[in-house]
User: Which sequence fits this backbone?
């Protein structure tokens, strides 16, 4: 009796599995595993997963995780060759490192095959080119802008600063006990203070390297960089809110929204929170403008994020489908409308009437300003080299130490220069 | 002799009962530890891979690395001050709660609450309390025209801030264990002391505290080893700053491994940390044995 049940059971199982097998295989072909880290546009993208399935019949399993979790997960997945990710969030700042480690599959054919390739903003796209191959398609390009309280500047009788030298004057005039003149990120990190500080460096003519990319001799201890660092230190310590030495972007945003700071220079996703009426008490007073420049012109920050395919992906074709969909005009337009930030990477999105109306309501020339800043931004704002994450961290820590008075600006640049040389000598 | 045979059989049973636990420890604790040890003798780099070289170069480098040496001082400051604060505060509250009986016993529950808060949340709470523009503390004192200094922008301040946050989150652990120990001390001792004319303070310091010594030592050891592993508080509250002023050894191992991709060097720092913690545990366990014998 027991035996027969057993036999019947295994027969059923066998039947079941053979009947199910083709479906399972088929389903596997039509699935794509996407790993993204959390930002407004990636959360927005995940919310559109059903649209992708409706259009292509492919199920997108989109996993949006915190940035720190993301780092450890891809590290494990890539070094272990797990092949559990088909599409990976690929920040430009990591591309060189990942390509050197052999973690990314080129997507050159997909990029070249696009009918509307010219519609993609060329700076962000070219940043994905390494040794003649493309390793990703951009979906997000954030640039640097300035936000200032027009009411407070008017009251002090000053105009918005065009250069960092003027910023020192304006800050002096505007600073009061209730409202600090300026708040910027100072917390150490290649994506924290080293996202904003190069805007000062480059405006004064400072550089990371003697002549990137031809002469890669570290050039941090230059008089131009020292001038930039001194300006940054004065602005933060004399005209910044109390405790600025540890401020990261959430503290900067809070200070702007609560009326504790009159100006900031930061990425679009940060400055647009100052003008967001839902969150900012002074949304009507804040005006957006290009970041200040200097003797060497203006150099707005730039941060580009895109999608790439991990090396050895077994679903490279469906992955490419997903990337094409996610970076298409249609999807980017939806994101620009659904999410709070205008960081899209296709020119045609700005032609959409609904997108135009949305951002014109915030500020008439918001979208134009953004395009202007993007055009001014240089692709290697932060050097595009495999060792940048390490170098950026080392410089950021020394710059932060200088702002907090733990070492002199000269010592900080010297130490950063020395550490940069050591890192590059490996 | 049947008795011996019986006890030999018992022995075998006991040994067999140890198998699952040994397997679990072997697979999930010893193996990764050995893996880390092996890694620390290579030059494995996350991006560049392994050149095939094996040697003690990582350990030599440790003692020439100024950042590593200073990370040990930072770690010791965080651990020593943190453990002191937690033990004193936890014991004080436990002694107070021990005498509270009847319907106010629920107070114990309230004091345990911080222990249940995840460390990242603790860090976020204290980060906002120590950020002058966000902090209600600063806002309160500003009413009286007093400016509370920004703790997180100096080394002493940032270390103090992390110790405060850590103490807030973990004193309940000390409190619970000391409370349990206090309940094991017979009230007769206190009564006898009172009859002999000792004040309550005197009775506490002369009778209760000496009886608590082994417990305090154990709880301090547990806390000390835990504080060597400081990470979320540093990561969220200071990112290791100002400058590098709060990069404790464990955080520095993370920086080397994940930020700088020097996995092998990071592993050698971790090996050092492990040996350090093991040595302290061993020393204190011996001291404890001596105390218990006495």
Assistant:
């Amino acid at each position: 009796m027991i035996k027969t049940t057993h036999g019947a059971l295994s027969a059923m199982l066998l039947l079941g599995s053979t009947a199910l097998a083709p479906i399972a295989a088929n389903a596997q072909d039509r699935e794509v595993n996407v790993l993204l880290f959390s930002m407004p546009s990636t959360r927005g993208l995940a919310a559109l997963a059903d649209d992708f399935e409706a259009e292509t019949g492919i199920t997108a399993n989109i996993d949006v995780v915190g940035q720190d979790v993301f780092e450890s997960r891809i590290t494990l997945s890539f070094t272990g060759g797990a092949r559990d990710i088909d599409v990976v969030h690929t920040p430009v700042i990591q591309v060189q490192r990942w390509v050197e480690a052999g973690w990314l599959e080129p997507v050159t054919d997909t990029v070249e095959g696009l009918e509307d390739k010219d519609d993609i903003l060329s700076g962000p796209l070219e940043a994905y080119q390494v040794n003649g191959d493309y390793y990703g398609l951009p979906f997000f390009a954030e640039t640097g802008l300035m936000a200032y309280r027009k009411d407070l500047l008017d009251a002090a009788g000053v105009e918005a600063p065009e250069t960092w030298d003027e910023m020192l004057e304006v800050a002096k005039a505007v600073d009061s006990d209730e409202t600090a003149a300026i708040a910027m990120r100072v917390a150490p990190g290649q994506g924290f203070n080293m996202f904003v500080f190069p805007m000062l460096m480059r405006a004064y003519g400072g550089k990371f390297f003697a002549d990137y990319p031809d002469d890669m001799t570290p050039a941090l201890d230059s008089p131009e960089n020292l001038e930039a660092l001194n300006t940054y230190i004065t602005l933060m310590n004399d005209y910044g809110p109390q405790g600025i030495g540890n401020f990261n972007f959430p503290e900067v945003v809070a200070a702007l929204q609560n009326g504790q700071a009159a100006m900031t220079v930061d990425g679009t996703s940060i400055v647009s929170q100052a003008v967001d009426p839902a969150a900012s008490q002074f949304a009507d007073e804040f005006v957006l403008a290009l970041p200040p420049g200097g003797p060497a012109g203006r150099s707005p920050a730039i941060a580009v994020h895109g999608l790439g395919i991990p090396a050895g992906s077994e679903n490279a074709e469906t992955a490419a489908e997903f990337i094409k969909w996610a970076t298409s005009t249609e999807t980017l337009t939806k994101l620009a409308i659904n999410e709070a930030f205008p960081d899209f990477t296709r020119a045609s999105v700005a032609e959409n009437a609904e997108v135009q109306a949305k951002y014109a309501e915030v500020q008439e020339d918001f979208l134009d300003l953004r395009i202007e800043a993007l055009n001014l931004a240089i692709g290697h704002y932060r050097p595009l080299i495999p060792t940048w994450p390490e170098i950026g961290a080392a410089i950021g820590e020394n710059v932060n130490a200088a702002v907090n008075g733990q070492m002199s600006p000269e010592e900080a640049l010297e130490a950063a220069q020395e550490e940069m040389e050591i890192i590059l000598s490996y | 002799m049947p008795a011996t045979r019986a006890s030999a059989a018992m022995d075998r049973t006991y040994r067999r009962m140890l198998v699952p636990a040994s397997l679990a420890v072997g697979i999930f604790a010893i193996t990764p530890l050995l893996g880390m040890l092996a890694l620390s003798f290579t030059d494995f780099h996350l991006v560049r891979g392994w050149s095939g070289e094996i040697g003690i170069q990582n350990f030599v480098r440790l003692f020439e690395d100024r950042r590593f040496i200073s990370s040990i001082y930072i770690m010791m400051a965080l651990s020593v001050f943190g453990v002191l604060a937690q033990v004193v505060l936890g014991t004080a509250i436990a002694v107070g709660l021990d005498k509270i009986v009847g319907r106010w016993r629920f107070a114990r529950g309230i004091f345990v609450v911080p222990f249940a808060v995840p460390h990242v949340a603790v860090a976020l709470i204290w980060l906002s309390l120590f950020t002058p523009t966000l902090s209600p503390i600063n806002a309160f004192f500003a009413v009286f025209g007093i400016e509370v200094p920004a703790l997180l922008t100096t080394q002493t301040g940032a270390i103090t801030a992390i110790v405060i946050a850590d103490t807030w989150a973990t004193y309940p652990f000390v409190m619970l264990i000391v409370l349990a120990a206090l309940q094991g001390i017979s009230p007769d001792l206190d009564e006898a002391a009172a009859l002999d004319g000792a004040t309550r303070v005197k009775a506490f310091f002369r009778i209760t505290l000496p009886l608590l010594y082994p417990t305090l030592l154990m709880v301090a050891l547990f806390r000390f080893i835990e504080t060597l592993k400081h990470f979320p508080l540093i990561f969220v509250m200071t990112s290791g700053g100002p400058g590098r002023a709060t990069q404790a050894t464990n955080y520095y191992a993370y920086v080397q491994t994940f930020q700088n991709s020097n996995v092998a060097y990071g592993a050698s720092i971790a090996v050092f940390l492990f040996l350090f913690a093991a040595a302290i545990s061993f020393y204190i366990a011996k001291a404890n044995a001596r105390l218990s014998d006495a």
Chain B has one domain: 58-97+106-293.
